[in-house]
Amino acid sequence: MNDLIGRVFSFESHVFPNQSALYNRLVSEGQSPKALMISCADSRIVPEHIMQADPGDLFVCRNAGNIVPPHATQNGGVTSTVEYAVMVLGVRDIIVCGHSDCGAMKALSTNADLTSMPNVAAWLRHSHAAQKVCRESYPDDLSDADKLRNMALENVVVQLAHLRTHPSVASGIARGEIALHGWYVDIHAGQVLGLDGETGRFLPLREGQPLPVALPHAKRLAADIAYAQAAE
Questions:
Q1: Is residue 134 marked as binding?
Q2: Angle at 49 between CA 121 and CA 218, to 5 degrees
Q3: What are this entry's molecular-function GO terms (predicted)?
Q4: Is 0.70 surpassed by the pTM of this model?
Q5: Are 213 and 201 in contact (CB under 8 A)?
Q6: With contact defined as beta carbons under 8 Å apart, do 40 and 104 qualify?
Q7: What domains are defined for the chain?
Q8: Per-residue model confidence as pLDDT tens digits over 145-174
């Protein structure tokens, strides 16, 4: 803690004075983040650091396993964060970001005994679809490392599907106002992969190349009908 407290003093004496204009503007004008990122609570994954974001750039929600529970009547922190980001802050891009060596995904890929952590076990039920995909759709003879990687990738896909059950997100997608992104951070290689919605595969993010997007901005109405106007 002493090391962390020392950094607080450094923020007050050095960082804030150099960025006081930015902070004053954020206070006077309010926040207008460029994206909502839902990432893992793992201390090795810091969204603002990965994206080199300034204060005000990202609206961040972190939890074990970068999970987005399907929309339900019960209130929850992730659900409230998503709703506020979309309906109040007008966020147009939502990123679900998984990562390598994720403890939550490791518990699922190894069928770890979680009886002593009932709350963790209940939370990870939101990733059971990914666990079933990995168990029934991938070869059995994969290495533990490959199984863990596959679990983390499939979990991102599942959480993006859950996002679409949230009314505010579903409505924004239908109007073409919201795009969904699925990312995977390889903390061993220092590389970020993005889900390509057309191929269903994760591709490296490369400067100067098109960004892989899970669900791009596009109007998506099931009944695309031109209604006849009433006669005058």
A1: no
A2: 75
A3: carbonate dehydratase activity; zinc ion binding
A4: yes
A5: no
A6: yes
A7: 30-204 (3.40.1050.10)
A8: 999 999 999 999 999 999 999 999 999 999
- In this structure, what token pair is assigned to residue 161? 């599907």
Which residue has 């490791």 as its token pair? 106
40 is in an annotated binding site: yes
Query: Which SS3 state, helix, strand or coil, does residue 37 take?
Result: strand
Residue 93 in contact with residue 181, Cβ under 8 Å? yes
Instruction: Name residues whose C-beta falls within 8 Å of residue 225's C-beta, 6 or more positions apart in sequence.
Output: none
The closest of 200, 183, 201 to 192, measured between CA atoms, is 183
Is 226's pLDDT higher than 70? no
What single letter denotes the amino acid at residue 59? Answer: F
- 42 annotated binding-site participant: yes
Please work out, in degrees rounded to the nearest 5, the angle formed at the alpha carbon of residue 214 by the alpha carbons of 212 and 215: 120
Is 188 marked as binding a ligand?
A: no
